Amino acid sequence: MYEICVYGAGSWGTAVANLLAKKKFNVCLCARDEKLVLRLRETHHNNKYLKDIHLSQNLVFDTPKNAQMGIFAVPVKYLRDFIEHFSIKVDAALSLSKGIEDETFLPPSGILFQTLGITKEQFAVLSGPNFALEVALELPTASVVASSNRNLAKKLQNMFNTHYFRVYTSSDYIGVEYLGALKNILAIACGISDGLNLGQNARAALITRGLAEILRTYKYFGGKSKTMLSLAGIGDIVLTATGNLSRNRILGLKLAQGLSIDEILNQLNGVPEGLNTVMAVFRLSQKYSIETPIINEVYNIIVNKKDPFESISILMNRPLKSE
Ligand SMILES: NC(=O)C1=CN([C@@H]2O[C@H](COP(=O)(O)OP(=O)(O)OC[C@H]3O[C@@H](n4cnc5c(N)ncnc54)[C@H](O)[C@@H]3O)[C@@H](O)[C@H]2O)C=CC1
Ligand SMILES: O=C(CO)COP(=O)(O)O
């Protein structure tokens, strides 16, 4: 059993494992692919996801094993199968993933409770405006650890905090998780708008009115309103809706160029979680009559191949209302 395992050697899992290893924690980065594990051991470079970053000599690599602290950086779509396949056992879990499970609408915490048999007292989530590459380059970054267990949140805050990575705590883990997932839909919407050169006014309007939709959806899940104003809320929305390191925003930019989803996924280096999240949220909003016009149009562009200009026209010509 390892002290700390980071599961998932994508860009964020690698950057987070490296941050902890540089702080001299005993940490193992766990990848599914044995060949990748061997290459990482030999080179201390993750060429696919963080190619110019030399990883700490203190970092060890393995296939998934049990750990005292399990840190999960696996896209939500694969998380349940990943844990079951490797029969992972941990004493406590930290989630880094930003998505919702399609059929169940569960955030990572719900999946981890079911698969690992842990309780909410053993769970925390780390989220915020955090592009993996910028953290790996030690650029100033702020983040939040949320848990209903105050001691666990404080412990993780101290574990992660460095001169370039400032960590806050929160008790609203549900709000932090759902905001991390929902913001990806707005990043896709803004990517589409910017890809069509609709201007900065349009982008600001999409972010602001999108926030109203996120608030309505997210209240349904039990997130606290004030978390919207946090690093995990508005902070991450601004970052991914405007920053070109976001895979979700790039998905939108490429949709605007007329590429198909398959073509885009082939070109993208990583998983745009918003693609699955928009499917789940669309079904949810239909089922419970939640008003989500922007989210509905993102869904229609992706699933029904609707012309984005038609979507803009629909959004601009909705019945007039107060803000
Ligand atoms: N990259 C970033 O800057 C940030 C990412 N996140 C979140 O972290 C989570 C992980 O993302 P990244 O590290 O960026 O990954 P990534 O998108 O860079 O890489 C894809 C990851 O998915 C794994 N994967 C692909 N197919 C799989 C399968 N069938 N079963 C299990 N795993 C599979 C790959 O091995 C790899 O670890 C996502 O939920 C993402 O939203 C959160 C904050 C920042
Ligand atoms: O969540 C992120 C930064 O906070 C990363 O966003 P993408 O998954 O869109 O790249």
TrEMBL record:
Gene3D superfamilies: N-(1-d-carboxylethyl)-l-norvaline Dehydrogenase, domain 2, NAD(P)-binding Rossmann-like Domain. It is an enzyme of class 1 (oxidoreductase). Residues 172-311 form the Glycerol-3-phosphate dehydrogenase NAD-dependent C-terminal domain. One of its GO terms (molecular function) is glycerol-3-phosphate dehydrogenase (NAD+) activity. Pfam families: NAD_Gly3P_dh_C, NAD_Gly3P_dh_N. Its main location: cytoplasm. SUPFAM superfamilies: 6-phosphogluconate dehydrogenase C-terminal domain-like, NAD(P)-binding Rossmann-fold domains. Residues 3-152 form the Glycerol-3-phosphate dehydrogenase NAD-dependent N-terminal domain. It is found in: Cytoplasm. One of its GO terms (cellular component) is cytosol. Pathway: Membrane lipid metabolism; glycerophospholipid metabolism. Keywords: Cytoplasm, Lipid biosynthesis, Lipid metabolism, NAD, NADP, Nucleotide-binding, Oxidoreductase, Phospholipid biosynthesis, Phospholipid metabolism. Catalyzes the reduction of the glycolytic intermediate dihydroxyacetone phosphate (DHAP) to sn-glycerol 3-phosphate (G3P), the key precursor for phospholipid synthesis. This is Glycerol-3-phosphate dehydrogenase [NAD(P)+]. The gene is gpsA.
